[in-house]
User: Which sequence fits this backbone?
């Protein structure tokens, strides 16, 4: 399968008052069309920066981001984004919030058609009946579900999510993993998910990319060889335990520690 | 609902009673301090003048405020979107705002001699645009990046982002500023009306009461001004309910 996203030798530094802060250094990664890529890495290593580069919100100092065989120079309509903060517009109803991208991407689409599309997605994520509510009337998990619908309402090629479930409690988070899995079965998209949760990266990802500490580069790639219709139970299998163990070691290396040392010291 | 009307009405009646009592206890004559019971007579005698002058004050205040909203929003947008504009405009605006506006009255009067309507509207504008400019500027420059990014990632233009997100999101702050501005504009209008020779409006009516030593008339004007001020303020509150009512959280 062809790669939908290719990141080739991307190097980027922020200009700060204290001088340039190198954030990404010769970072390479490739994501095949339709695949789900989870990206993990130490805090502050440059994961959010990577999402902004893929979305075309910023251009790297060096290297290129390729989307569908074309270099990304500016934002494009075929991207959807979701963040830890659901970013709901309080003056709009849930339905109107979900429709928002269509107003930009498909200005001529009849309102009826937009609403039908949004309603279908709201139904898929279990928000049927809440379309007329204001965001402030919904729980955090429900707002995040609506935010997911908004991110894919215009059928983007790429869905970019930056710690979308980071602020949710553990049970709600697992609910949303399953929602995400089911959405993918019905709405094909390529996905880049930034996360701090290793179990999340394995449950949702086809591949897990481990980034090194800042300036970040691709330190390790794990192929998650699990069926697409995996259930939460799979998280308790030895196979997944091995993957989590490996990822945890990799994160410790990325943090500049000796893998296993912390665990050994704890006994 | 009943309480919402009854409480303020009772408070006002209490205030009038207290005023009447103070004047009565001190035995002040009318040329020192009028009492509320003197006022109805003044209103009846000058009813057509009150309507005419009240209208003058009202439309000029509103006109000045409308100009302030347009110009203040434009300045706020410039400051909110551009760092350079912010750095350039802030000290100028703060400095201008610090000038007591009474000192500008003779300047304006000399610049535009005899243009009473124009001068009044101009003063109402000058005195009231500052809070609007600042609130819009701050509202726009503190917009969380994610709000911008969800639309920018789709290639939306700055104008679109402004209309769809930045503007509605700053409306609560905007109306907060407008409540301050409406009172300021009202003060600006009256300032010019009182100071200008041959002026019109409630301010001029106050001046004529002063010239003729008609204390009940002067106090009647003051009360009329207070009432008009309240009306203007609550008109803004009503607009706020309509356009930014979503920002009001249901109270626990
Ligand atoms: N606009 C900016 N200007 C200057 N420095 C920035 C900017 N944005 C991020 N940084 C810095 O760049 C580094 C990487 O930031 P980034 O947000 O990409 O990290 P992250 O991996 O997403 O972190 P986290 O895990 O905490 O979300 C951080 O040290 C941050 O302080
Ligand atoms: Mg981040």
Assistant:
């Amino acid at each position: 399968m062809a790669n939908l996203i290719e990141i080739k030798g991307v190097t980027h530094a922020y200009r700060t008052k204290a001088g340039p802060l190198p954030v990404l250094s010769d970072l390479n990664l490739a994501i095949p069309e339709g695949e789900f890529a989870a990206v993990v890495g130490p805090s502050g290593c440059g994961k959010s920066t990577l999402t902004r580069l893929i979305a075309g919100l910023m251009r790297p100092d060096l290297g290129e981001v390729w989307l569908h065989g074309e270099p990304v120079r500016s934002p494009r309509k075929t991207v959807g984004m979701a963040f830890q903060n659901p970013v709901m517009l309080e003056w709009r109803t849930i339905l109107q919030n979900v429709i928002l991208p269509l107003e930009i991407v498909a200005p001529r689409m009849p309102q009826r058609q937009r609403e039908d599309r949004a309603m279908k997605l709201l139904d898929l994520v279990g928000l049927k009946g809440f379309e007329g509510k204001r965001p402030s009337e919904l729980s955090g998990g429900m707002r995040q579900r609506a935010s997911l619908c908004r991110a894919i309402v215009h059928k983007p090629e790429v869905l970019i999510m930056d710690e979308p479930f980071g602020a949710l409690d553990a049970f709600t988070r697992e609910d949303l993993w399953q929602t995400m899995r089911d959405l993918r079965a019905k709405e094909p998209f390529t996905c880049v998910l930034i996360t701090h949760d290793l179990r999340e990266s394995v449950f949702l990802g086809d591949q897990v990319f481990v980034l090194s500490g800042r300036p970040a580069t691709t330190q390790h790639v794990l192929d998650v060889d699990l069926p697409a219709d995996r259930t939460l139970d799979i998280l308790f299998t030895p196979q997944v335990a091995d993957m989590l163990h490996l990822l945890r070691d990799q994160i410790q290396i990325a943090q500049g520690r000796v893998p296993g040392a912390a665990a050994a010291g704890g006994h | 609902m009943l309480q919402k009307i009854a409480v303020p009405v009772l408070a006002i009646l209490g205030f009038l009673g207290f005023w009447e009592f103070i004047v009565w206890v001190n035995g002040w004559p009318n040329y020192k301090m009028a009492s509320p019971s003197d006022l109805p007579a003044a209103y009846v005698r000058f009813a057509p003048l009150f309507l005419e002058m009240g209208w003058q004050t009202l439309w000029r205040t509103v006109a000045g405020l409308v100009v302030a909203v347009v110009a203040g929003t434009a300045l706020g947008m410039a400051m909110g979107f551009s760092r350079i504009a912010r750095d350039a405009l802030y000290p100028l605006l703060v400095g201008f705002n610090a000038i007591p506006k009474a000192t500008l009255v003779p300047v304006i009067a000399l610049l535009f001699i005899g243009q009473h309507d124009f001068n009044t509207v101009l003063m109402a504008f000058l005195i009231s645009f500052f809070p609007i400019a600042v609130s819009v500027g701050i509202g726009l420059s503190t917009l969380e990046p994610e709000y911008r990014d969800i639309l920018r990632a789709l290639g939306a233009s700055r104008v679109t982002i402004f209309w769809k997100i930045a503007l509605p999101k700053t409306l609560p702050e905007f109306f907060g500023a407008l409540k301050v501005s409406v009172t300021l504009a009202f003060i600006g209008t009256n300032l010019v009306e009182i100071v200008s020779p041959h002026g019109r409006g409630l301010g001029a009516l106050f001046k004529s009461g002063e010239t003729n030593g008609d204390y009940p008339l002067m106090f009647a004007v003051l009360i009329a001004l207070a009432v008009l001020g309240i009306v203007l303020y609550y008109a803004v509150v009503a607009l706020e309910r309509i356009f930014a009512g979503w920002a009001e959280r249901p109270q626990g």
Notes: Chain B is about 80% helix and 0% strand. Chain B touches chain A through 21 residues (CB under 8 Å). The mean pLDDT of chain B is 89. Residues 41 and 216 of chain B are 8 Å apart (CA to CA).
